[in-house]
Amino acid sequence: MTYAIEIKNLNKSYKNFSLKSINLRLEEGIVMGLIGENGAGKTTLIRSILGFTSYKGDIKIFGKGMNKGLKEDIGVVIGDKFFTEKLKLKKIDEVMNSFYKNWDSNYFFDLCKKLEIPDKSFKKLSAGNKVKLKIATALSHKPRLLILDEPTSGLDPIVRAEILDIFFDYIRNDGVSILFSTHITSDLEKIADCIAYISNGKLVFKDYKDDIGFKYGILKTSEDEIGLYDDKYFIKKRVGKYNIDVLIKDKSEFKELYPNSVVEKPSIEDIMLMLKRGI
Length: 279
Known about the structure:
CATH topology of the largest domain: Rossmann fold
Distance between the termini: 39 Å
CATH architecture of the largest domain: 3-Layer(aba) Sandwich
Low-confidence stretches: none
Strand order of the largest sheet: 5-6-7-3-8-9
InterPro entries: AAA+_ATPase, ABC_transporter-like_ATP-bd, ABC_transporter-like_CS, ABC_Transporter_VariousFunc, P-loop_NTPase
Protein name: ABC transporter ATP-binding protein
Largest sheet: 6 strands, mixed
Oligomer: single chain
Pfam families: ABC_tran
GO molecular function: ATP binding; ATP hydrolysis activity
Number of strands: 13
Shape: elongated
Number of domains: 2
Radius of gyration: 21 Å
Keywords: ATP-binding, Nucleotide-binding, Transport
């Protein structure tokens, strides 16, 4: 099988931080949400995939090492950088048309119209319109892989919803894959097929989103009752003033053993918080 992204034993070290033995695969046609606290390593991982920084290990995109020929297949939204802040839409279209053989001017201007991006130089656009323009530019050469680093960060819910709708429309094309790094887990609840969670430079888990609700649960219990349960199911717990929340695994098996227990379906954010802050 050829993967959109295949990472084997990736290591990258800085003075006060390192990615440690990351192994991760993004299948073709899949939207992967990449989550983790600030400083967890999400951006370093993306920069490594794109060849923006050196690393140890092996990264393949569609079965190949990063090279100039892959630019047609990859659309990128990363950081605050844009190729120039002085250009307006028409000039951006001309420049990008010279870069990409598959650049679709009609699609680009349709996206700009749909997203209500004003015809101003990039530096004069609002934060939301800058992101929308980056996304329109990333999509308009029809890439097979989108790599997005916090594309909706700092945007209001209406703008985020518009952007997610554009992604929904785009991924209807067979085989399109997205790596979507964000700390806004509610966006991933809407669009992601699978979730990869990085913490302190390590991959904690990768699971399909639909499986997460079956595998994990939040047991609602108390100090008096927690001893009634087999702690082999416990992953992490958080102790409140009046109750204890426990992140459990093998939820179905646990419920068979303890049918009267109160077990809630966790959100992505619940799992992330429990794994990071639980004991």
